[in-house]
Amino acid sequence: MNASAPQPLVFHARPGRDIAARLANVVTGDVLTDAASCARYSTDASIYQVQPLAVLVPASDDDVRAAMDVCAQASVPIIARGAGSSQCGQTVGAGLVVDHSKHLTRIIAFDAAARTVTVEPGIVLDQLNGWLRKHGLWFPVDVSTSAQCTLGGMAGNNSCGSRSLLYGNMVHNVVAIDARLADGTDARFGPERDMDNASPRLRDLVASLRAIGARERDEIARVVPRVMRRVGGYNADVFNPQSERPYTADGSVNFAHLLVGSEGTLAWTRTLTLQLAPLPRHRALGVVNFASLHAAMSSTSDLVALGPSAVELVDRTMIDLALANPAFRPVVERALTGEPEAILLVEFTGDDAAATRRKLDDLEDALARRGLEKQLVKIPQAADQKALWDVRKAGLNIMMSLRGDGKPVSFVEDCAVPLAHLADYVDRLSGIFRRHGTRGTWYAHASVGTLHVRPILDMRRDGAQKMRAIAEETAAIVREYKGAFSGEHGDGLVRSEWVSWQFGPRLTRALEEIKDLFDPAGRMNPGKIVRPTRMDDASLFRFPPAHRTLAVATGLDWSAWDVQNDPLTGALSAPGSGADPAQGFAKAVEMCNNNGHCRKFDAGTMCPSYRVTRDEIHLTRGRANTLRHALSGAFGASIASSDVRAALDLCVGCKGCRRECPTGIDMARMKIEFEHQWQREHGVALRDRLIAFLPRWAPFAARAAPLMNLRNRMPAIAELMQRPTGIAARRSLPRWRRDTFGGDAQTSSGDAGADVVLLVDTFTRYFEPENADAALRVLRAAGFSVAIAAPNAADGSRPLCCGRTFLAQGLVDEARREAVRMLDALSPHAARGATIVGLEPSCLLTLRDEFVALGLGERARTLASRALLIEEFLVLENEAGRLDLPLGALTQRRALVHGHCHQKAFDAAGAVVKTLRWIPGLDVEAIESSCCGMAGAFGYGVDHYDVSMRMAELSLLPAVRTAAADTLIVADGTSCRHQIADGTRESGPRDAVHAIRVLAGALRDAAGAAAPTHVDRTLS
Ligand SMILES: Cc1cc2nc3c(=O)[nH]c(=O)nc-3n(C[C@H](O)[C@H](O)[C@H](O)COP(=O)(O)OP(=O)(O)OC[C@H]3O[C@@H](n4cnc5c(N)ncnc54)[C@H](O)[C@@H]3O)c2cc1C
Ligand code: SF4
Ligand code: SF4
Description:
1020 residues; six-stranded antiparallel β-sheet; disordered N terminus; binds iron/sulfur cluster
């Protein structure tokens, strides 16, 4: 073999099997040793990747104890892990990775009077704060990853939030840690006064630590930087505090603070006792616009002197990136005066509304003294404040959405310097970047001198060399300003080698002593903080020089990702020019930077399968990592491997990630591509074929409707058919109708000059034709001329079809054939400016999304730009002043709306609520729900039934069940309606209707005075 040819990364028989076999006998949690599972745990949000020997997802603290015993006997390292959102490689290593985020999530104790809470390490910050809200309290270390990061991980990293100016870092807010040492000793670390009653092992440990503290007192004072944001190394200064903010109110020693920031290298955190703070009752936010970044940074210390809770920077590049995002644009626009080069978000909090508001006036006065008062935008409304903070929190992810191999790399992104030097620091660091042919985007915690900045580097090419050079030059400036090199994100693999640079040889030896006292055999997360590897050790990179990508002939067009970027300007090369052997598919997959936002549980859709299983394999990130490894050849010469199939199995294709993943990972589209590759290699199973070709056999089934519907009435038939069809016997099937829309004859396209072309999809046509009738009534009542979408005469009588069922099964070529028929028929309408209107979200939105991805060129893009769901169309017409829809009251006074996932992904769900609110007296509320779990054919599968129902039970079905009997349940998705019917069959049947039926029910004739009408699912 040619020595310079890239070598495939192949996994061999795993040494972890031995330890796994031993573990399996003593734990009840999951022990994972297969190559794909290990691959999923080989990365965090850093540039590094190391394959673990095995993974344990402990079911209990006892499992962790057992695992630590086994690891001790086998001399295997233990790497603790929460959400794995670390940016520095803290959670990767060749040992047993222990993921506490699934089961160790309990709140153990709460003391309202003392304002403390004790939790297990796996609880997520937002979930804890959600629970605390009713008590008027919160845990105030408000990190950007609050939706996914765990308290154990936060303590491991000594995390810091945007409001650290007011509340401090993690170390300032941890009261005690119940830990387990590598030798199995359980020990409570807390205030010094409590340590004397400890076990002999702990008393010895504490005595030795005290001795080190006393011995190194002067050295600590000499070398530890006096800034609040110093998280590098161990907190040896608990004995001689150097932080601007004391670790404890009375200056006493708390031994838990030594564990905070120790990155799992000293002990395993079993529980944490946290100091809580009252929820601020009032917030006031002012945005100061600056003509230059330098001016913003020069002003920071004056602004901090006003006593804000936060001063956060957003620079011009980030403003531009946010303005380019439709969701963020209006939020950012509200905060700008002209075209500033930088803005500072200055927040004040307090219990008194007027006093808090007055602080904004103080800010205005302070700016007026510099002639800058016109640069201030006050943001009084809480909702607007939150929206702006969300943009700021999304900062890093906005940056990470840059396509191409050059990525913003994290290694000098959190140096902390005293405020007096901030402006010069920014200027000089920008100069360093320029000299190395790159640039950085600046944002974040100006108030505490910690600015995030990541130069764009290509780690597959010359990135490693540039990284070292930039780090060395930056370190020199940081030293000059007496700052901290590691000010927020920790040491991990990227900054541990800088610990000795920061603290010098003497204190570094003392830190090693501390490590050895806790963990003499060096088993706890070795190589981090002390005795490190080099930051530019390319063998630890996610994309090492030997990285290769398999050649893939893709079914979909991924060329938009197959690009390179200019590190100085961010400009992208032409689509298809990025030299990706997988035609852009690999680069699209590699966009996942592992930040873990898909682990969130709050509002939004992403990621329903993770929400029910809490398994990394069923997470958008886990899927992207599996695909990335497959594309590098890790599971063989083809990506069509069963490992990938297993990872994608529970992906419901909801497109939640398409909208909510900060870097735009579109797993639904990736699943189509994967299924396409799979079917090409393995053939199409009967069951998949049955589903895919439904639009083709539907006309025949409709004619035999009574026979077809027997299955729903006779459980024996359902049981009999379960095995050959794979359809769960417990599922009802959609009821076939003989009175299909347009009957047997294909509908003609009607008026060639119609305003609107109505697309009647397969499901509406054969299962609920009354929805199409209702649409016609509404559109005509509003005065639109309507044509029905129909194939061209030369194209036969088969109705048009969007191809969704083919896409879902990976039959991309069939889907393309359908798309071409649709384009042939509808392009002339689109070209003349007619709107193509549809009812079923997954069908109509296929025209907006996958048609373009099928590589069908300009015609597809034009059609996509003219295709709207019916409610979107009505809202747009209304906003343009062209809609006059005569609506009257209904007997029902309330409607609950469940948005289809694809509607949410395309921001179209709001239009449903808007249109229903036009109905006089109807109170309309959206259900805060993720995917209904049915997701096309997904929920019908016998192997998916349970997961499907669990998804529905997360929030949708409980909301439906508790709704009053006369509340209208509205859902535009055929499968969502079906899921609601199935899921409530036993608890009290509820039927959902399409919104258009509600609007049609509320239509009034010219007289307009009719009594309220009643909308039900009774077929017309
Ligand atoms: C987009 C983005 C934004 C971020 N913003 C911030 C920010 O604003 N502020 C900030 O401080 N950080 C930030 N981070 C970094 C990271 O999210 C935080 O440090 C977070 O608190 C880590 O939590 P986690 O659950 O993901 O921990 P992990 O990454 O899983 O683990 C963190 C460390 O804790 C150790 N650990 C985990 N569990 C235990 C245990 N039970 N016992 C002992 N050790 C344990 C691990 O070994 C590791 O060293 C950001 C990261 C990203 C990707
Ligand atoms: S899939 Fe998206 S949200 Fe999830 S880790 Fe990757 S980049 Fe983050
Ligand atoms: S498409 Fe939906 S289920 Fe699939 S990964 Fe994305 S959010 Fe999760």
